[in-house]
Amino acid sequence: MIANGNRATLWMYRCCSNEELPMRQAGLVLSLLMLATSALAHEYQSGDITIGHPWSRATPPGVDKGVGYLTLTNEGQEPITVTGAASPRANSVGIHETRMEEGMMTMAPVSNGLTVAPGQTVEFKPKSYHLMLMGLDQPLEEGERVPVTLVFDGAPSRQVELHVEGAGGAHPE
Ligand SMILES: [Cu+2]
């Protein structure tokens, strides 16, 4: 963002194109997937945080970035912050936010983590917050379970499994 504008733009484009491209096909299969994903609903508990339905999308050949979506619900009395994530399948896992700026879809890393207030739920979902798996060792395939460890301030770290849905997959929102 500071000195190397061109590189930052390219990187953002590649990252975003991976996240947003499959959305174009999502409408056709949405109703089918709503049936499918309801059968796969799964959640995890870590301290006062509940991690709901972690999922991802299959990645096309030659793309080494994948996404992760889930919900975080804070059932406690104190704020809980997700400060980072890691996966054995990726070189690194970032917390990103996609948003509209001047009619363009852009995305940026969330620095200093994402805080969930007591009683609140934060959704990681398409066109919003997401985990970005960077440097995948191999493509994510539909039906696969991808382990991701979430690191919290205010709750113990927790390993969850992303259920990989089809490339056009969209979770009912
Ligand atoms: Cu991203």
UniProtKB/TrEMBL annotation:
Keywords (A to Z) from UniProt = Signal
Q: Looking at the record's lineage, which domain of life comes first? A: Bacteria
Q: Does the keyword Signal apply?
A: yes
Q: Does the keyword ATP-binding apply?
A: no
The signal sequence is: 1-41
Q: From the Swiss-Prot or TrEMBL record, give the protein name.
A: Metal-binding protein
